[in-house]
Specification:
The structure holds two protein chains of two kinds.
Chain A (H helix, E strand, L loop, with lengths): L2 E13 L2 E14 L3 E5 L6 H9 L4 E10 L2 E2 L5 H7 L1 E4 L11 H13 L5 H14 L17 H15 L3 E5 L7 H18 L2 E6 L12 E6 L2 E6 L1 H10 L2 H9 L1
Helix pairs in contact in A: 4-5, 5-6
Chain B lengths: L82 H4 L11 E2 L5 E7 L14 H9 L2 E7 L6 E6 L6 E10 L4 E10 L2 E10 L4 E10 L4 E10 L4 E10 L2 E10 L5 E10 L4 E10 L5 E10 L5 E10 L7 E10 L5 E10 L6 E10 L2 H8 L5 H17 L5 H20 L1
Parallel strand pairs in B: 3-5, 4-6, 5-7, 6-8, 7-9, 8-10, 9-11, 10-12, 11-13, 12-14, 13-15, 14-16, 15-17, 16-18
Antiparallel strand pairs in B: 1-4, 2-3
Helix pairs in contact in B: 4-5
Chain lengths: ~250, ~425
């Protein structure tokens, strides 16, 4: 059984005003097949956690570690992490000029598996995943994310999640900017991926909305760069009613 | 009858109903309307009074003033680096040419008195005129026969002394061929290439610049296209220090058609330039211009200027030009200047587009986060970007070779 462990993680970022510490000792263990939701107010460090796991060069790990089945992830390059089984669905997926979705997916799949996928089954898999995510066939020949709407970009992220079959995926505000129909389609895709591969999920969100469609096993409240409280799905309901004020007041006092 | 209807009994409350029928401000030209606001091409408000076809032309170098670098045709070129070609004496003798034998295609040196010389165009700047004044004999590639065929004409031994040259490529009526001009080795060359298409001829000309690192190559291609004839012209510039290939095409016969394609990859310190000019001079002519370039490394510089003139007699013209640049690293500069001049309103369409985009760290992160290595990510993006041009060449062997050459370009700069 796979496990992703984050231990006493401290992360800083260089800004114009100098080094800014963002994560201040994050501890989190995600087992295969579990869904963890991370909720918190803006600026609490949720996205920093997501990008640090994926290895974005902007974020500097000062101390602590991220272990995937006991192996240190923080010393791996970005692509090594992906090949080790980590995936990040981005809040703002970037456009890649000159690279079609088809070409991109095949190249990524080949890189992750270490060999090219069998052509016939691969084409079928891509077509079926796209159809389930209500993505028109024409997307396959378009350049990655170029001219895609916000909702289309998010669906394209989930398409990759389904096809690349990571062991652990971080979804960074995948729900932001989606209307309710798109939210349902995207959530179904995530649930399907989990059912098919049993991956572990870290769901980062500001709102509880997406948790109506993807039921978390654990909810963590992120405040000021660390986990301030954790519980089961009922904690999300409480946050929906009360908001984050309770935590913000505490942190201000501290 | 002619008196304008004047509203009577207008009370203040009715005023809003008497709306003027003149266009409202919404329909009036605004600052943002295309063509009113100046383009950001660095001309600093200078608007040439002449049309593109009205530029001074001469085959005699003495008719041109010394090059200062402020001229419209030279202002984006490093003119100080090739004064030998614009102002010096040139070696105009013949040189070694290797060509693949092909039925119905002859390759021969011809005298300056050959009647074809000067029929496709004349120099508009001093380096071209210098070449014209200097060449002793012209290389003539004459295409006949109606069957499809391919011929490669290679130059590999031009040497590093300044040289002037002249080439004629003639496609007889109804002939068809792919002519590949291959340029490798050392060169300090200024030259003119005349391309003459008879009625209904179908010619592809590929000029491939894979010179050594120090080479300087200034070329002007003048093409004239007969009735219902079709020219596909492809400029591929990869190697050389300064490479400037300016194709100028006159759609002279009704129903004539041209596809002008370009692919360039500028490395650190390289200057690759192309000034394209399409002159729609006959009814129902069609042109498509697509140039794509990649820039990588400090001081990599590209220039693309695309002039399209749709003349008074060019009713039914269908024209579109575009330039795309992909910037792979910091420290590069891509100039992209489309110009469109239309003298008749009776056309099917005319448009232009230009875009220069970066391959940046976020794109790299995105691709890497999907397991793709950095090297592969760059290759993927560049190959995807340039393949559109490569695929249209129509010579499978050359297409494969260019793919490999592009990959070598990527590897080459990674090692530096």
């Amino acid at each position: 059984m796979s496990v992703l462990e984050i231990k006493d993680l401290h992360v800083s970022v260089e800004t114009d005003q100098g080094t800014k510490q963002i994560l201040r000792g994050v501890n989190l263990t995600i087992n295969e097949g579990e869904i963890h939701a991370i909720m918190g107010p803006n600026g609490s460090g949720k996205s920093t956690l997501a990008y640090t796991i994926a290895g974005h060069p902007k974020y500097h790990v000062d101390s602590g570690s991220i272990l995937l089945d006991g192996e240190e992830v923080t010393t791996m390059t970005v692509d090594q992490r992906a090949r080790a089984g980590l995936f990040l669905a981005m809040q703002y997926p970037v456009e890649i000029p000159g690279v079609t979705v088809t070409n991109f997916l095949r190249t990524a799949k080949t890189a992750i598996d270490g060999e090219a996928p069998a052509i016939r089954t691969w084409i079928k898999d891509v077509r079926e995943s796209m159809s389930r995510l209500r993505m028109d066939k024409s997307f396959a020949e378009r350049n990655v994310n170029e001219g895609f709407s916000g909702g289309e970009k998010k669906r394209n992220e989930i398409l990759q999640l389904e096809l690349l079959k990571p062991r652990f995926a971080v979804l960074d505000e995948t729900d932001s900017g989606l209307d309710v129909d798109a939210l349902k389609i995207v959530s179904e895709g995530v649930n399907r991926a989990k059912e098919n591969t049993g991956l572990g999920l870290l769901l980062i969100t500001h709102y509880t909305r997406i948790l109506r469609y993807i039921t978390p096993d654990f909810v963590h409240v992120f405040v000021d760069g660390r986990i301030a409280e954790q519980g089961g799905p009922e904690l999300a309901d409480r946050l929906e009613d009360e908001g984050y004020d309770r935590f913000l007041t505490e942190s201000n006092v501290g | 009858m002619s008196a304008a209807p004047t509203p009577t009994h207008v009370s203040p409350t009715q005023e809003s109903a008497v709306t003027p029928t003149v266009p409202t401000t919404e329909a009036m030209p605004t600052e943002e309307q295309h063509g009113i606001k100046e383009h950001s091409d660095g001309r600093f408000g200078f608007v040439p009074v002449q049309t593109r076809s009205g530029r001074f032309k001469s085959v005699n170098v003495a008719d041109f003033a010394p090059v200062t670098g402020r001229e419209a045709v030279w202002k984006l070129s490093p003119v100080a680096k090739f004064t030998d070609l614009t102002a010096g004496d040139l070696d105009g003798s013949t040189y070694q040419v290797d060509s693949t034998p092909s039925a119905d295609v002859t390759v021969a040196w011809v005298d300056r008195t050959d009647p074809r010389i000067g029929t496709a165009g004349a120099p508009e700047e001093r380096a071209a005129a210098n070449a014209w004044t200097s060449f002793e004999q012209a290389l003539a590639i004459t295409v006949g026969g109606e069957e499809a065929k391919e011929i490669t004409v290679s130059r590999a031994h031009l040497g590093s002394a300044p040289r002037g040259a002249h080439t004629i490529i003639e496609a007889k009526p109804f002939s068809q061929a792919v002519v590949i001009l291959e340029n490798v080795g050392e060169a300090r060359l200024t030259e003119n290439v005349e391309i003459i298409l008879g009625d209904s001829a179908n010619l592809t000309v590929v000029t491939l610049q894979e010179w050594n690192d120090g080479a300087v190559h200034l070329a002007n291609h003048f093409a004239t296209i007969g009735r219902d004839a079709r020219l596909k012209h492809i400029v591929v510039s990869l190697g050389g220090s300064i490479v400037r290939v300016n194709p100028s095409v006159r759609l002279a016969g009704s129903g004539s058609d041209t596809e002008l394609l370009g692919l360039y990859f500028a490395d650190a310190g390289q200057h690759l330039e192309q000034q394209v000019y399409v002159n729609h001079d006959a009814p129902n002519s069609r042109s498509r211009v697509t140039y794509k370039g990649a820039l990588q490394g400090k001081g990599a510089r590209t220039v693309w200027i695309g002039d399209v003139l749709i003349g008074r007699q060019a009713a039914g013209t269908d024209s579109y030009e575009q330039n795309r640049n992909l910037v792979l690293t910091e420290g590069t500069r891509a100039d992209s200047i489309p110009n469109l001049e239309i003298e008749t309103g009776d056309i099917k369409g005319a448009g232009h587009a230009s875009a220069t985009g970066r391959f940046d760290d976020e794109q790299l992160f995105y691709l890497q986060s999907r397991g793709i290595t950095e090297e592969e990510a760059r290759r993927l993006v560049v190959r995807g970007f340039l393949i559109e041009i490569v695929q249209q060449i129509g010579s499978p062997a050359l297409e494969d070779r260019l793919q490999a050459a592009i990959e070598a370009e990527l590897r080459g700069t990674e090692e530096k």
